[in-house]
Amino acid sequence: MRFLILISCMLLTPRSYADNIIVNGTRFIYPANAPEITIQMTNTGSAPSLAQIWLDEGDPDVPPEKISTPFIISPPIARVDAKNGQSIRIKKQDLKKITINDKESLWWLNILDVPAIDKNEYKKDAGMLNMAIRSRFKFIWRPEGLGNRADAENKLELLASKNKITVLNSSPFFITIVDIKTASGSGLLEESEMVAPRSQMEFKVKENISHGQNLVVQSINDYGGVVETKIITHG
């Protein structure tokens, strides 16, 4: 699959047309017992767009033709007409490539939006920029038998050390931490981070935290919503 990216730039002051395609989610979960999952794209623009869709293993700089994953995307390239939608099907294929089955695995779903050039606008305004925009979304493979995802945050542990908090994730699920708040509601994190299954991550926080302090962890569930979990820190 060839990597498509088009930037047509002619003369003087640019006018930008891009990023018309929206997707029905911020993350996509593929349960192992599902034959396939469907992703819906919608073109909110006034002209058709060409979308290229592929998965990568975490390196955004590797071109699609050099990537091999256990999934088939159909169609990998699609025209999405203005004010219309297009369904993309992702189906598991070679599961031998998935060697870890006791916790979730992560890929990244890429959607490259290449808007069409309006010929009438092109004739009127030679200083026009047509830019392809790529969006990346978390794509998580969830093996069977991992238990209840809704309980994952309850298994988190927080280790406090002055201006640092170590988050221990003993669950088999990826957990995206949006923020950690004090009892008074003060946010401690500068940015969100995703903690991998059965791993830990250290966060720098905006104020010193001590052992035994009550904190509220804000995280993202399967549907993109924010959930809050009360956790007492340990030393």
From TrEMBL:
Residue span, Pili assembly chaperone N-terminal domain: 21-146
Compartments where located: Periplasm
One cellular component (GO) term of this entry: outer membrane-bounded periplasmic space
Main location: periplasm
InterPro entries: Ig-like_fold, PapD-like_sf, Periplasmic_pilus_chap, Pili_assmbl_chap_C_dom_sf, Pili_assmbl_chaperone_bac, Pili_assmbl_chaperone_C, Pili_assmbl_chaperone_N
The Pili assembly chaperone C-terminal domain, residue ranges: 168-227
SUPFAM superfamilies: PapD-like, Periplasmic chaperone C-domain
Gene3D superfamilies cross-referenced by the UniProt entry: Immunoglobulins
GO biological process: cell wall organization
Keywords (A to Z) from UniProt: Chaperone, Periplasm, Signal
Signal peptide range in chain numbering: 1-18
Entry similarity comment: Belongs to the periplasmic pilus chaperone family.
Protein known as: Chaperone
Organism encoding this protein: Buttiauxella noackiae ATCC 51607
Lineage, broadest ranks: Bacteria, Pseudomonadati, Pseudomonadota, Gammaproteobacteria, Enterobacterales
